Amino acid sequence: MEFSAQQIAQLIGGTVEGNPDVMLSAFDKIESAGPKALTFLSNHKYAHYLPSSNAGAILISTDFQVSEPISATLIRVNDPYGALAQLMTMVDQLTNPQPVGIEQPSFVAPGVEIPEDAYVGAFAYIGAGAKIGAGAKIYPQAYVGNGVSVGEGTIIYAGAKIYRGCVIGKNCIIHSGAVIGADGFGFAPQPDGTYAKIPQMGRVEIADNVEIGANTTIDRATMGRTIVGKGSKLDNLIQIAHNAEIGENTVMAAQGGVAGSAKIGSNCMIGGQVGIAGHIAIGNKVNIGAQSGLHTNTPDGAVLMGYPAQPARQWMRQQAQLTRIGELIAKVRELEKQIKSLEN
Amino acid sequence: MEFSAQQIAQLIGGTVEGNPDVMLSAFDKIESAGPKALTFLSNHKYAHYLPSSNAGAILISTDFQVSEPISATLIRVNDPYGALAQLMTMVDQLTNPQPVGIEQPSFVAPGVEIPEDAYVGAFAYIGAGAKIGAGAKIYPQAYVGNGVSVGEGTIIYAGAKIYRGCVIGKNCIIHSGAVIGADGFGFAPQPDGTYAKIPQMGRVEIADNVEIGANTTIDRATMGRTIVGKGSKLDNLIQIAHNAEIGENTVMAAQGGVAGSAKIGSNCMIGGQVGIAGHIAIGNKVNIGAQSGLHTNTPDGAVLMGYPAQPARQWMRQQAQLTRIGELIAKVRELEKQIKSLEN
Amino acid sequence: MEFSAQQIAQLIGGTVEGNPDVMLSAFDKIESAGPKALTFLSNHKYAHYLPSSNAGAILISTDFQVSEPISATLIRVNDPYGALAQLMTMVDQLTNPQPVGIEQPSFVAPGVEIPEDAYVGAFAYIGAGAKIGAGAKIYPQAYVGNGVSVGEGTIIYAGAKIYRGCVIGKNCIIHSGAVIGADGFGFAPQPDGTYAKIPQMGRVEIADNVEIGANTTIDRATMGRTIVGKGSKLDNLIQIAHNAEIGENTVMAAQGGVAGSAKIGSNCMIGGQVGIAGHIAIGNKVNIGAQSGLHTNTPDGAVLMGYPAQPARQWMRQQAQLTRIGELIAKVRELEKQIKSLEN
Question: I need a labelling partner for A259 at 20 to 30 A (CA). Which of A183, A327, B141, C209 fits?
Fold first, then answer.
């Protein structure tokens, strides 16, 4: 498939600067794109690649000021990354159509209905009482436990595991190796030093339009529900403990951990490897830097960083001050000498 | 199933305050429990929910002093969380009976005996020479390698993987995606900068009553054994490296890592995202705060926090002092001025 | 199998000190080895075990000075760990031969050729257009997506998942639960607070001789490639984000994370639980201590530690200085008093 820069501009409501007839057949990054590739400039950190880019065309912000001659055709749009997403989605749907039908051997418990436009891959397991929505795609070796509900249009990739009774909304994507609904980590210490298991009788509920990364684990509630709200996106290798609740449209980068019964608001951005303690509440639109550790309730809109987490500016100031601690020790020693000589 | 508060009190040796005839049919959290639900108060952080709770009945400590009128029936016990565990276990066994029998298609190597009361799920793989104990439950898509031993009553959930020759004790629970016995990370650097693989010829031994969380990885020993002691509980996404040894009844929260040949004692409590360096020894009853990093041997009973870890009180004091570093810099600048003016 | 110390010395070009006829039939660690076991001394931290070791023989460095009588036979070599690796590899190949053939039931898409000396385990899935190299071993329940290429001699252990179109080189080892080629974490924020998915249309390329640990995740590129270079070794539970690039012979310990588009050089050593921010470049031969966090470009040969990372020596000095901050606060208070009394 090939499209001209002009055709692409029309699809996404952009305007062309340069040759409108350049033909494009691939997407690529700005630094490696060749003459048949469409690329984009969103993060200005990469603007220095513009003059030397061999790309056929570049999606670029309407208000970006070009200071050097650029050989590529520019397609001006308000939101280059958004426009790219839109285009890639169109192409992706054309070139990677989702499979349909039931591959054999697979295991579908008696009484479970698989809609005609759904997919059940080989070696997938669909337990008794499960409900599979229209157009759902259950890839090979995935496990859908007894009584699990999978919403319309949801994709469960190869080998993802969903324990009994959990609920997955519509148009979700669950990546390979994700485990949803394993037992929460709940034990009652006994007088002899051993631990008695607390049965984990609740479930996990994933709302619509959620994406769950590869090998992420979301534990079932002790009682009640562990919740991931509508439109939230979890990266890979994240841990969400029992009875935690995550609001809507919150994004969380890889390897973060949310301890038991913590509540996180909506529209938060949480960096990689962050730890959030149990039983605390994080407000809406909170922004947490990578590797931070949160131990206390956090108001809406906070921007946090560090271990333990503090307001990001304060943390940065403190880090700068810390580099001066050696100097400070030396100065105090000097002052002590000076005072001693003054006293004498 | 419904039970009266009186019946429940009798089952667990508690005493009723309020209406003994209230009928209960569910467990729920104190803040969301309705009039048919039994809840509990263990963490006093939640005590403010007591007066407004709509729960039918609440398990509560014998010595908890009620200061406001509570509409719910109280069931007094010495250990509310333990009593809850006991009740939930009874109900769980009634409502979620473990499966029995061999689902097809599954792969059981010739010569392997599956006890009558055991379960082998569809697409499970049981390798040559494996031993499966009475009542063991091998869920769908689980992998039990050649020569693996699975003890009586042990549950291996969907898709867990156990490499050849590893030993799993009795009454263990291995959650989905856990990988037990993959190669330890051992390579010999070569003069040309490449690495030669050191074959990992040992195994993993998991003692009785151990629970291993979802997607946790425990590597086989280079030679000898990687060990998880009796009654220890590992949460999700934990890494236990080759030849590490973990004692008995030690609990470790999610995403912690134990490097090669480290030894951890018994009855330790290790927070989430903790890192423990290789070749060190941690004593018994050691308590390590979340996200800490340990690089040195640690005596029995230590309470540690921080990166690098230090005694928790000292760490807290230091964190408080660090917030004053800006003030300290300013003070020293002021002192310098004052001394200069004294000297003149 | 039994070999004499003399036979072993000949296999690896070593020289015997002590009884050359002692017969050896196992490998073990120095502290637990019995009279039929061969052990080694590489890390001098373990040298105190030498006099009391019950090992039959010990591989030891040519230039190691023995200061106390040792009952075990010594086999002197230049590189004891390398010699051990060489011997263990020989024994491992004899005692754990790799399987051959196609177990049933498995799923091999029409048109895919499985070489005669390859292995496809039960419940493995090989998608349309996949290419399987000579001698490749695809263990049970592994998933090889459409169009994936698996090089000669590569081992994909039970349940590893490789999404469509990814390329795995020759003689690689991919451990159980690893997920290669899941979607990168790319979303375009929308004006209404929701996120639009950016299709991830690139792939992952793993070069030859790479080892990928259990449950490690390597995301496919948004466009172009996510790359792991020749001879690099990744431990368990590592996250490599979309469009990241890792050079050759770089080793990375468990639970580290590399964010999107970061570039890491060759021959680096990266400790456990390290975080590397997106869009930064790390040079060659960089050494990063465990749990560090890197946010800036890093030159060749840097030795870094801390969060945020700084040169390791500077970090250690700073840590030592930090323990004196309480003392510093007290001293400044004292100086203030002294100056006040001087001023009066």
Answer: B141
Token output for B49: 């929910």
Mutate which of B146, B217, B307, B310 to test chain C, going by most C C-beta atoms within 10 A? B217
Query: How far, in Å, are A66, A70, A72, A90 from residue A51 at the CA level?
Result: 9, 5, 8, 29
pTM: 0.94
Is residue C318 left, alpha or beta, with left meaning phi > 0 and alpha meaning psi from -120 to 50?
alpha
* Tens-digit pLDDT profile for residues B156-172: 999 999 999 999 999 99
Q: What residues form DSSP beta bridges with C59?
A: C40, C75
Q: How many CB atoms lie within 10 A of CB B41?
A: 21
- Residue B83 burial (10 A CB sphere; 0-12, 13-18, 19+): buried
Residues of C in contact with A81 (CB under 8 A): 188, 198
Give which of B122, A294, B276, B128 is closest to B138, Cα–Cα.
B122
Q: Helix B325-343 and helix C325-343: axis angle, to 10°?
A: 30
By three-state DSSP, how is residue C271 classified?
coil
* Helix intervals (H) in A16-109: 80-95
Q: In angstroms, rounded to a whole number, what is the distance separating the alpha carbons of residues A114 and A136?
A: 9
- Domains recognised in chain B with CATH numbers: 3-95 (3.40.1390.10), 101-316 (2.160.10.10)
Question: Cβ distance C240 to C226 under 8 Å?
Answer: yes
Cα angle A117-A118-A123, degrees, rounded to a multiple of 5: 145
Judge whether residue A1 has pLDDT over 80: no
Asked whether C280 and C296 are in contact (CB, 8 A), the reply is yes
- Substitution target in C139, C176, C339 with the highest count of B β-carbons within 10 Å is C176
Q: Is the peptide bond before A199 cis (omega within 30 degrees of 0)?
A: no
C75, C62 in Cβ contact below 8 A?
no
Please choose, from the candidates A139, A315, A116, the residue with its C-alpha nearest in 3D space to the C-alpha of residue A126: A139
Q: Is C242 a catalytic residue?
A: yes
Q: Is A273 on the interface with B (CB under 8 A)?
A: yes
User: What does the alpha-carbon distance between residue C206 and residue A275 come to, in Å, rounded to a whole number?
Assistant: 31
The total of other beta-carbon atoms located within 10 Å of residue A341's CB is 10
Q: Which residues pair with B227 in a beta bridge?
A: B205, B245
SS3 label, residue B52: coil
* DSSP-H helix ranges across chain B: 5-12, 80-95, 312-322, 325-343
Catalytic residue among B44, B175, B242, B295: B242
Q: Pick C177's closest partner by Cβ from B123, B195, B215.
A: B215
Query: What DSSP character marks residue A210?
Result: -
Q: Are B56 and B36 in contact (CB under 8 A)?
A: yes
DSSP H or E run through B138: strand B137-138
> Of the candidates C163, C185, C224, which has its C-beta nearest A32's C-beta?
C224
pLDDT in tens, A81-108: 889 888 999 888 888 889 999 999 999 9
Residue C265 near residue C223 (C-beta atoms within 8 A): no
Q: Please report where in the chains the tokens 């964010």 appear, as a residue.
A: C259
CA distance C112 to B252: 45
Q: What's the rounded mean pLDDT across residues A236-258?
A: 98
Q: Which residues contact B340 (CB under 8 A, 6 or more apart)?
A: none
Query: Using 50, 70 and 90 to split pLDDT, how confident is the model at B29?
Result: confident
**Does position C344 have pLDDT exceeding 80, yes or no?**
no
Query: Is B182 an interface residue toward A (CB < 8 Å)?
Result: no
Is the peptide bond prior to A69 cis by the omega test (within 30 degrees of 0)? Answer: no
Beta pairing, strands C3-4 & C23-24: antiparallel
